[in-house]
């Protein structure tokens, strides 16, 4: 494991400990999508990420997977044009992403949680 990865893992553990002390539930500060990405060193806790990052990540995943599920279960059998289904999924993903990004930013401000770039872990 590289030094950079070890530093990230240490910083992430300390950030998660901070979030736990702020009264957040584990499912809130460590949702499954983020836990999966942490294994690859790919992202930061959602309350410490930027509004745009949270919106794009959460909205993108939601839009793609919800759109595929709707297409397989409903729209494909109804003969809905693919372009219409893609636009609806993109709109739903955008709404979900904006809602989740707002919630994460609101939660962070309410609990005085620093952004990742401002977070200085104990050494």
Short description:
This protein is mainly alpha-helical and 123 residues long.
What does this structure look like?
- The protein is mostly helical and about 120 residues long.
- The chain has one domain (about 5-120).
- About 70% of the residues lie in helices and about 0% in strands.
- It has five helices and no strands.
- It has helices at about 5-20, 25-30, 30-40, 50-80, 80-110.
- Helix 4 packs antiparallel against helix 5.
- The longest helix has 29 residues, at about 80-110.
- It starts with a helix and ends in a 13-residue tail after the last helix.
- The mean pLDDT is about 95.
Apparent shape:
elongated
Query: How confident overall, as mean pLDDT?
Result: 94
Assign the structural class, choosing from mainly alpha, mainly beta, alpha/beta, alpha+beta, or little secondary structure. mainly alpha
Estimated helix fraction = over 70%
Pfam family, one: DUF6404
Protein name: Transmembrane protein
Transmembrane segments: 51-74, 80-103
Keywords: Membrane, Transmembrane, Transmembrane helix
